[in-house]
DNA sequence: CGATGACTTGAACGCCATCAATCGCTGTGG
DNA sequence: CCACAGCGATTGATGGCGTTCAAGTCATCG
């Protein structure tokens, strides 16, 4: 079952902390569940809601006419997604595993934001974090080798998932590949190489649970210093 | 001289319009000039100022240890750059040609922004536009072929520079290549192919002035529909 | 005019993509 | 309980797009 690879439910997500002013009492929100593989919203659809992952994992992607896909970001517990400045979504968002989200009506947020400085500052902060991530990812997609990409991905997940012990990846090799701008075969080969070089270990026989043995080594690889 | 390839000085840049609330009377600003090739600020430097291009062109890039470079954006007349959410710049910015900028002290802006909702909204809008651009660029860098990348670049410049008549590119082939995540030779070959197929023409013998003959054809290429 | 820099073009290479086979795990049904 | 289908992942063989290396053109400038 895919759901067993969810982010560790024992670790408390920093929901209110991350959401900041979005958890304002005057902003109404509801919970919503999406089963693995289902679409949360589509690219170019009206952006009427803003989402926060409570449990599970979400991918945001763009699709080309012939099926080529680029995943712009993975959203894990605590992350906000679907926040747009324009009227429409710019990505398609799908639940990777069974996922629980908090859903906020955009109009509700905007009504409060009209007069509340803290809320807008919070939106600005979130948007700025998304921008910073995209900027880093442009360097990865434009200039890094496949091994550097996979190393960077592992470090990102190492940082965002449980830093202690093994990380349980919610996404499959194809998702990783489409996030890194390579093919799933190349992802697999890179993981094999990193494993053979002792930088990581596979836990169990699932290939989704990975133990990062040498984060510093991965960090060097990411920038091609080592 | 490179400066002759500046964006058309006859066309009035939308300075106040683009800057929006940043042109607030309470925010002090000064003009500053940078000659071609000089650094405006460096990656990881404190982000004490925010900039707006008055005339000229600027490139923002990240550099890897071994010299690989990824240009995240070109900034043309009217554009704001150097706006950060954190305390440090995340790109190095350099003048591509002789460039005149308006410089705003960040603290000055933040002081006003503390109480002024319109200013913050303006910052949010600018950050959101940067994010949207980065999101589109991730798809380009991750999944598009070299021909699609160059076609997309030409369309972007066609839109942002004078839409009527030829476009005068301020940047050289290497800049274009580092923006598109390919090599300058590949850029050159793609331009040659597009020229042979009648989608564009070189004006004069400079190879920097390009006439987009068939924007719709380029648009099809960009998405690989044609 | 010789030097320099930007650009183009050609030839060969290499990294990653593509195509394909296989393995292991899981769930299902006889 | 085992056969088998199905999916995810790995591994191998081959090919191609873009890189790398190199030469040559053209415009500019000392």
Structure description:
The structure is a homodimer of 226-residue chains. With 226 residues, chain A is an alpha+beta fold. Chain A has 7 helices and 11 strands. In chain A, the strands form 3 sheets. In chain A, strands 1-8-3-6 form a 4-stranded antiparallel β-sheet. In chain A, strand 10 and strand 11 form a beta hairpin. In chain A, helix 4 packs across helix 7 and helix 5 crosses helix 6. The longest helix of chain A has 27 residues. The first copy, chain A, is elongated. At the A-B interface, strand 5 and helix 3 of A face strand 5 and helix 3 of B. The structure holds a DNA duplex (30 and 30 nucleotides).
> Judging from the principal axes of the Cα atoms, what is the shape of chain A?
elongated
> What is the number of E strands of chain A?
11
Helix content of chain A: 25-40%
Oligomer classification: homodimer
Query: Which runs of chain A of at least 5 residues are low in confidence (pLDDT < 50)?
Result: 1-18
- Average pLDDT rating of chain A: 90
Give the radius of gyration of chain A.
Answer: 18 Å
Strand order of the largest sheet of chain A: 1-8-3-6
Largest interface: A-B, 42 and 42 residues
Count every helix of chain A, treating DSSP H or I runs of 4 or more residues as helices: 7
Return the string of H and E elements of chain A.
HEEEEEEEEHHHEHHEEH
What is the straight-line distance between the termini of chain A? 38 Å
Instruction: Tell me the major beta sheet of chain A.
Output: 4 strands, antiparallel
**SS-based class of chain A:** alpha+beta
Strand content of chain A: 15-25%
């Amino acid at each position: 079952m895919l759901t067993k690879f969810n982010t560790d439910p024992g670790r408390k997500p920093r929901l209110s902390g991350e959401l900041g002013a979005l958890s304002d009492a005057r902003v109404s929100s509801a919970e919503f569940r999406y089963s693995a593989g289902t679409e949360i919203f589509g690219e170019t659809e009206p952006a009427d809601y803003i989402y926060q992952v409570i449990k599970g994992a979400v991918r945001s992607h763009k699709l080309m006419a012939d099926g080529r896909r680029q995943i712009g970001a993975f959203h894990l517990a605590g992350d906000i997604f679907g926040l747009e400045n324009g009227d429409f979504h710019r990505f398609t968002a799908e639940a990777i595993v069974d996922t629980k989200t908090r859903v906020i009506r955009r109009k509700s947020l905007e009504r409060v934001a009209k007069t509340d400085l803290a809320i807008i500052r919070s939106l600005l902060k979130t948007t700025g974090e998304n921008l910073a991530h995209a900027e880093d990812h442009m360097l990865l997609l434009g200039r890094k080798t496949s091994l550097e990409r996979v190393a960077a991905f592992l470090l990102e997940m190492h940082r965002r998932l449980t830093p202690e012990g093994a990380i349980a990846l919610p996404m499959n090799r194809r998702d990783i590949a489409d996030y890194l701008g390579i093919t799933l075969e190349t992802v697999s080969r890179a993981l094999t190489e990193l494993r053979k070089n002792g930088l990581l270990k596979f836990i169990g026989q699932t290939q989704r649970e990975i133990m990062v043995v040498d984060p510093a080594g991965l960090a060097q690889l990411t920038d091609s210093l080592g």
